[in-house]
UniProtKB/TrEMBL annotation, chains A, B:
<keyword id="KW-1003">Cell membrane</keyword>
<keyword id="KW-0813">Transport</keyword>
<dbReference type="InterPro" id="IPR000644">
    <property type="entry name" value="CBS_dom"/>
</dbReference>
<keyword id="KW-0812">Transmembrane</keyword>
<keyword id="KW-0129">CBS domain</keyword>
<feature type="transmembrane region" description="Helical">
    <location>
        <begin position="384"/>
        <end position="410"/>
    </location>
</feature>
<comment type="subunit">
    <text>Homodimer.</text>
</comment>
<dbReference type="InterPro" id="IPR036739">
    <property type="entry name" value="SLC41_membr_dom_sf"/>
</dbReference>
<feature type="transmembrane region" description="Helical">
    <location>
        <begin position="358"/>
        <end position="378"/>
    </location>
</feature>
<comment type="function">
    <text>Acts as a magnesium transporter.</text>
</comment>
<dbReference type="InterPro" id="IPR006668">
    <property type="entry name" value="Mg_transptr_MgtE_intracell_dom"/>
</dbReference>
<dbReference type="InterPro" id="IPR038076">
    <property type="entry name" value="MgtE_N_sf"/>
</dbReference>
<feature type="transmembrane region" description="Helical">
    <location>
        <begin position="284"/>
        <end position="302"/>
    </location>
</feature>
<keyword id="KW-0479">Metal-binding</keyword>
<keyword id="KW-0472">Membrane</keyword>
<dbReference type="Pfam" id="PF00571">
    <property type="entry name" value="CBS"/>
</dbReference>
<keyword id="KW-1133">Transmembrane helix</keyword>
Length: 446, 446
C-alpha cells in the first residue's frame, strides 16, 4: 500500500509519455485495490484505456469510491461498462446502474444478461438505507438432504463466479431458510455426514426492509461474516457481508461527527466536489438558529446593563467565563453522545451519571476558579476575584449538567442524541453563563 | 437480538427464584452472543454458576466487553477460568490473563497446557497498539507441494478447534510465508491441482511492530477478511482478522470524537465506572488552557473599553456575534477533520478548498448578517445595524478560514488534525471575533 503510493508518480510519468503497455506490465500483477488507487491518480481518458486492457477490470472498479465509479461509468465505452457490471457483485453493480444517466442505463440493459437485469431490477426496488438496498445476491445455497461430500461437489460444479462462500445456506423447495453451515464446518466435517446433522438451525437473520444500521449492529453483535436477509415468509433473498456493514458504520459515524458540529446531514458529499450551495444549505440552518439562541445571552446582558455600566471590568472577563461553561458543557455532551452510541450507557443510567458528573464538575470548576480569580485579583480587586471564582464554579457546574443531560433528553424525545452538538450546547451554556455571572456580580458588587 | 432483550426480564425472575436449571434450558440453545447479553444482566454469582454449566462457556465469554470479562475472571473458580482460557482464541485469552491479579495468573499458568502458555507469553510481549498485540495465533498453514485434495485432508485431520480457516497460509520449512489460498478457492479448485498453482503469491502482509491503526486501514483498503503478520525475515507470526480491525476502528473513532471536544484520550474508560479523578484529569488540561486562551478576548475588550463605555448596546450583541464565528468555525473544522480522516481530502488540497470555503463563508455570513442587522436596527439605530452586518460577515469569514485551516496546520506540524477541537476553534474565533467587531465599531461609531 505504501509502496503503491510511491509508485503513483513513476506511473504518472509513463502515462504522460503514452507508454500504456509499460504501465500495464507494471500494475497488472498488483492487488486490485492497489490498481484502483494508482488508476485514480491518472487522467480519466488514461484510466479508460487501461481498464479496457485489464482482465480483472470488474474487480478493480469495485475499489473505487462510489462517486469515482459513477464518473468513470460516464466515460467508459458501453461494451466495457456492460462487461464490468456483468462480473461485479450484484450490490455493487446496482449502485452504478442506478446512478448513470437514463440513456446509458438503456444502452446497458440491452447488453446485460437476463439474470443480471433481473438482479439489478430486484435490488433497485428496495428503499435507500434498508437491508435490501445493501444486500448482495451472490450467495450459495444447498438443498436439504445432501451429505457433506455431495454438498462440496455441488458447490464446486455450480458456484457462480462471484458468489461468497463463507456461509452456505440450506433452503427448502420454496427457498425458505432451514439452516446455515460455514465452509469451514463443511471442510472439517466427515465427508459422509449429512449436512443437516452439522448445520446450525438456530437461525439469525434480518428482514429486507430492516434499517441498514440495525443490520450492521446485528452483524457486529454476533461477529458474523455475513447475515442472511429474508422476506416475511422466511424465504432467503440475499446476504449482507461484514465489509458492507463496515461501510454502513463509517457512514453513520460521519453523520454523528457532522451533527456534533451542527452540520445537517442527509446525503453523502465530498468536501472537494460538493456544490457550494449544498455546503451552504447544510450549515446555514443551525447557524441562523443559534444566532437567535444567542439573543438570550443578549437579553441577560440587557437586564443587568446597570451593573455592567458601573463595573466595566466585568466585560473583560465575560468571554472567558461564558466560554468556559460552553467548553465544559460540550465535553460532557460529547462524552455522553459517544457513550450512548457505543452502548456504554443507557437512559436508565442518567441519575447515577448525574451524581458522578456533579463531582467531576466541582473539581473542574474549582481548578478553573483558582486560575481565574488570580487574574481577577490583579485586574480588579478581591471582590472581583470572589465574583469570578463563584461564577466560574457555578458556570462550569451548570455547563456540565446541561451538556450531560441534553443527549438523554433528546433520546427521550425520540430525537438523535448526536444532535446535542457542541454549538448547540455552547449557545445554551452561554446564555445560562451570562445570567449566573451577572446575577452573582449584582449580589456582591452593588 | 431484540427477542433476547425481551427475554432478559423473565430470565432475571427465574434466577431470583434460584431456578437455574430452567434458565439453562432456556438459554443454552441461543447464540453465544445472546447468552452473553443475558448473563450480563444477572448477578455475578449467578453468572458464575450458569457459566459453570454451559458447554460453550469459552465462546460466550468472548462476547462480554473486556472490562466485564476481567471482572468475571476474578469471580470464577480457577478451574473454570483455566478451561475457558484454554479454549479461547489466543488474542482474546491474552487480554484476560494480562489483566487479572498476579496471584490468579500464577494459579492459571499451572493449569494451562504448555502450548497455551507459550502462546500467551509470546503475545503478551508485543507492545500495546501494535499489530502483534491484537493478532491471533489460531490460523492454519500448509506446507508447500500439496495438492488441493491433500491440503483439504490435512486440514480436516489437523486443524485445531479454534483455528480460523478463511485463508490458509502456505509456508516453507522455516515458516516463511510463500502464498495464500482461501478456503473458497480450495473447495472450488480441481482436487488434483497443486495448491501452488492456485494460491496467490503476490503477498500482502504487515509486520508485528506495525501500528494497529495502519493494520486496520490495510485490511479495509484491501477488503481482506484476515491479514498475515510476519517478522522481518518474512516468517508468519499470526493473523489480524476483520472483526479485530473493526474494534480498532471503533476505538480510534472514539478517540477522534473525544478530541473533537477537547477531552484528552489515552486509555479506554467507561462513563459509568471510570474513577472521578480520571475523568477530571482527562478534561482539566484543555479547560484551563482555554481559560488562558480566552484572555485574548478579554485583552481585546480592554483595548476598546472606551467605545464600549460609550455604546453599551455593543455588549448586548457581543455573545451573539462572537458565538456565531465560533459556531461557523467549528463546523468548518469538523468537516475538515472528518474529510482528512476518511481520506477525502489531503494536504495538497488546502488551497483549492480555501477558495471554496471563502465562497461558502460569504453566503453564510451574508444570511446571518441580514438576520442580525434587523435586530440591531430595532435595538439601536441604522449605524448599529451596519456595524453588526459588517462584523457578522467579517467574523463568519474569519471563523470559517480559521476552522478549515487549523486541521491542515496541525497535520503539517505532525500533530493529529482531530485536536482542532470545537472548544479550541471556538476560543480562537472568539478572540478574533472580538477584535473584528470592536474594530469595526470603533471606525464607524466614534
Amino acid at each position: 500500500m505504501q509502496n503503491t503510493i510511491d509508485m503513483v508518480h513513476s506511473i504518472q510519468q509513463l502515462a504522460q509519455q503514452q507508454n500504456l503497455d509499460e504501465v500495464l506490465t507494471q500494475i497488472q500483477h498488483l492487488n486490485a485495490a492497489d490498481i484502483a488507487l494508482i488508476l485514480q491518480a491518472l487522467d480519466i481518458s488514461v484510466q479508460v484505456s487501461l481498464l479496457h486492457m485489464l482482465e480483472n477490470k470488474a474487480e478493480v472498479i469495485t475499489f473505487y469510491p462510489l462517486e469515482a465509479q459513477i464518473e468513470l461509468a460516464q466515460h467508459l465505452p458501453i461494451q466495457d461498462l456492460a462487461e464490468m457490471i456483468e462480473h461485479m457483485h450484484s450490490d455493487d453493480s446496482v449502485d452504478i446502474v442506478k446512478a448513470v444517466s437514463p440513456i446509458i442505463q438503456k444502452q446497458l440493459y440491452t447488453r446485460l444478461s437476463l439474470s443480471k437485469r433481473i438482479q439489478i431490477r430486484a435490488l433497485a426496488a428496495y428503499k435507500e438505507e434498508s437491508a435490501g438496498a445493501i444486500m448482495s445476491l451472490d450467495f450459495a445455497t444447498l438443498p436439504e438432504g445432501f451429505s457433506i461430500q455431495q454438498g462440496l461437489d455441488y458447490l464446486r460444479e455450480s458456484a457462480s463466479n462471484p458468489a461468497t462462500l463463507y456461509e452456505i445456506y440450506i433452503v427448502n423447495a420454496v427457498r425458505q431458510l432451514q439452516g446455515v453451515i460455514s465452509l469451514r464446518e463443511m471442510v472439517l466435517a466427515p465427508p459422509d455426514a449429512l449436512i443437516q446433522s452439522v448445520m446450525t438451525t438456530e437461525l439469525i437473520y434480518a428482514y429486507a426492509d430492516d434499517d441498514q444500521e440495525s443490520v450492521a449492529n446485528k452483524l457486529s453483535h454476533y461477529d458474523f461474516i455475513a447475515l442472511p436477509i429474508v422476506d416475511r415468509e422466511g424465504c432467503l433473498l440475499g446476504i449482507v457481508t461484514y465489509d458492507d456493514a463496515m461501510d454502513v458504520v463509517n457512514e453513520e459515524t460521519t453523520e454523528d461527527f457532522l451533527k456534533a458540529s451542527a452540520v445537517s446531514t442527509t446525503t453523502k458529499m465530498s468536501m472537494k466536489t460538493a456544490p457550494i450551495l449544498l455546503l451552504y444549505q447544510k450549515r446555514v440552518f443551525w447557524l441562523v438558529f443559534l444566532v437567535f439562541g444567542s439573543l438570550l445571552s443578549g437579553l441577560g446582558i440587557a437586564h443587568y446593563e446597570d451593573i455592567i455600566a458601573a463595573n466595566l471590568v466585568l466585560v473583560f472577563f465575560l468571554p472567558l467565563l461564558v466560554g468556559s461553561g460552553g467548553n465544559a458543557g460540550s465535553q460532557s455532551a460529547t462524552l455522553m453522545v459517544r457513550a450512548l452510541a457505543t452502548g456504554d450507557v443507557h437512559f436508565r443510567d442518567w441519575f447515577k451519571l448525574l451524581g458522578r458528573e456533579i463531582l467531576v464538575a466541582l473539581c473542574l470548576g474549582g481548578t478553573m476558579a483558582a486560575a481565574v480569580s488570580l487574574l481577577g485579583y490583579f485586574r480588579g480587586d478581591i471582590m472581583v476575584a470572589l465574583v469570578l471564582a463563584l461564577s466560574m464554579i457555578g458556570i462550569v457546574m451548570m455547563g456540565c449538567l446541561i451538556g450531560m443531560s441534553l443527549p438523554f433528553i433528546l433520546q427521550k424525545l425520540k430525537l438523535d442524541p448526536a444532535s446535542a452538538s457542541a454549538p448547540l450546547v455552547t449557545s445554551i451554556c452561554d446564555a445560562a453563563g451570562v445570567l449566573v455571572y451577572l446575577f452573582i456580580a449584582s449580589q456582591l458588587l452593588l
